[in-house]
Design brief:
three-stranded antiparallel beta sheet, 51% helix, 4 domains, alpha+beta, five-stranded antiparallel beta sheet, 11 strands, SH3 type barrels
Length: 546
């Protein structure tokens, strides 16, 4: 009885010392020698050291950060390691500890405070505080996880711990590899495989149902939109299933953050991917509808140009927004970008000038699609080159020249400098054929030959609107004759001009007297003057003045 009474007295004295903040002789004697690099001098050091140790799987080291004196000394090593492991899972799942907000001084805040709060975790309608407590060992302040918190670790672990603790063998829990226990690695592999398989099945099931509904309508656009979802629709399903699966694995904060960012990034990529497909499908559908309807050819080409440019604008916007959303989730990238733009004046100016040029090209492409000075399929004359507009982008225009060469022209060329658009307005066009003939040529006969050419060989090319032949200019030796003809479009006009020029030349060859010729005039030679005439001319000449 006396021995029991003495033990009770010692325990009461020890409890009084603890509650009163008085020095204690030792702490966690059953754990053995405290590692020399173990820092427990402040709440911040204790919290950071405990989290680092448990996430490395060093549960025996983490036990030194717990108050274990309520346990028998012989049970402290095994029980301490298990309690540290269980507390890790509880904190990782339910409480995000911000160690930077904890006091970094031994006295705590306010000074001489014996407790530091990490937060609270709900348990069966109550709130369990997670606290650190200060002791003094050999005159040195020591901060450990409070006894009241350590005693609640088991109930908290039963509520928030892994679900497979009682079903898997102990080998899956007794060690860590790269910060994860074997059961977590197994669960991660199963989660990835099952998420991919389930996302594939969900995609096929949803697309099959949507395609069946889309076939009830007469239009084909919705069928194409449903088909465009094959691929992009799988990524959101995979991201959602991955987030749900990893939430049960109780991953460390860094891996949990990585998993969340992967899910978020996959969702952004899926949305951007679907938008790009949506734009292309919509553009192709509108073009097919316009082509199938009896709309003017000029209107169809104009609409095709507008759709191509607008699709390019929206695609660039989609890429930019998606990239911005992906980078905004990384704090380091966001801070670096803001710092560079705010502090580097010369670099910021250079970037601004470069962006201004790119923005001007982008605005020029938008203005080109709205004002329509040139469209895809137009026949234009630019920089002395004649060709057909084959492609229009946000920065350049591709011109297919008549000899099959491709001429790439900056898009600002069509807004800043003049050019000829032979397809603007009505495609009907007129052209000239210039010939040089002699003054003796019969102009009426040439007009009759022009009528014959257009009524016979050029019947398929001439549109019947304009046919004239006039003396365009009078030169010292020849006449300039101009034949003016018209055609339905520039392509036919070129062939018609070649034909008229060739046939008129053949006709002039049959009348050689009408061809340009050089004439010369000869006069009889005069006899030389006689000697008497020369003397008379000399006498009649005035005398030179001195």
């Amino acid at each position: 009885m006396k021995r029991h009474a003495s033990r009770v007295l010692v325990a009461l004295l020890l409890l009084g010392c603890v509650l009163g903040g008085l020095p204690v002789l030792a702490l966690n004697n059953g754990l053995g020698q405290v590692p020399q690099d173990l820092d427990r001098t402040s709440p911040r050091a204790t919290a950071q050291g405990f989290l680092d140790a448990v996430h490395r799987g060093e549960y025996a080291r983490a036990a030194h950060y717990l108050y274990l004196d309520h346990l028998p000394a012989a049970e402290q090593p095994a029980q301490g390691a298990q309690l540290a492991r269980k507390l890790k899972f509880v904190l990782d799942r339910e409480l995000s500890v911000d160690t930077s907000a904890l006091p970094k001084t031994p006295e705590g805040e306010p000074p001489n405070s014996r407790f530091a709060s990490l937060g609270a975790i709900p348990l069966k309608g109550e709130s369990v505080p997670i606290r650190l407590q200060r002791f003094t060992v050999d005159g040195t302040p020591i901060w450990v996880v409070a006894e009241s918190t350590v005693k609640m670790v088991d109930p908290l672990f039963e509520e928030y711990g892994p679900l497979l603790t009682e079903t898997l063998p102990a080998v899956f829990f007794d060690r860590t590899v790269l910060g994860l226990e074997p059961w977590q690695w197994l669960g991660l592999v199963v989660t990835l495989l099952s998420a991919w398989i389930l996302s594939y099945l969900l995609e096929k099931l949803l697309l099959a149902a949507a395609l069946r509904v889309a076939r009830w309508t007469r239009i084909t656009w919705d069928d194409q939109i449903v088909s465009a979802g094959r691929g992009p629709l799988r990524l959101p399903f995979f991201a959602i299933l991955l987030a749900l699966g990893t939430s049960f694995l109780l991953l460390p904060p860094k891996l949990k953050l990585l998993s969340d960012r992967v899910s978020y990034s996959l969702t952004i990529v899926a949305v951007a991917w679907f938008i790009l497909r949506f734009l292309r499908v919509s553009e192709a559908y509108v073009q097919s509808r316009v082509t199938s309807e009896s709309s003017p050819h000029r209107r169809a080409r104009s609409l095709r140009t507008q759709l191509a440019v607008l699709r390019a604008v929206f695609e660039v916007a989609t890429y930019v927004i998606a990239a911005a959303l992906l980078l905004m989730q990384f704090e380091v990238v966001r801070n670096v970008g803001v710092s560079l733009l705010a502090s580097a004046g010369i670099a910021g100016l250079a970037i601004g000038l470069a962006a201004q040029k790119s923005l001007s090209s982008l605005l020029a492409g938008i203005q080109l699609s709205i004002t329509q000075p040139v469209s895809i399929g137009d026949n234009v004359l630019v920089e002395g080159e004649f060709g057909t507009v084959e492609e229009i982008t946000l920065t350049y225009v591709v011109l297919r020249i008549w000899d099959q060469r491709r001429m790439v022209i900056p898009i600002t060329q069509f807004l800043d400098k003049p050019f000829q658009n032979w397809s603007k307005g009505s495609p009907e066009i007129m052209g000239t054929v210039i010939l040089q003939v002699d003054y003796m040529a019969d102009i009426d006969a040439l007009r009759a030959e022009l009528d014959r050419i257009l009524a016979n060989e050029g019947k398929a090319l001439w549109d019947g609107r304009v046919k004239t032949l006039v003396v365009f200019d009078v030169m010292d030796k020849t006449l300039t004759v101009r034949a003016l003809v018209s055609a339905a479009n520039s392509s036919k006009l070129g062939d018609l001009r070649f034909l008229v020029r060739e046939r008129l030349v053949v006709f002039l060859r049959s009348k050689p007297q009408w061809l340009p010729m050089v004439r010369s005039e000869s006069r009889p030679a005069q006899p030389p003057p006689s000697r008497d005439d020369q003397e008379e001319a000399t006498q009649g000449a005035p005398e030179p003045r001195s």
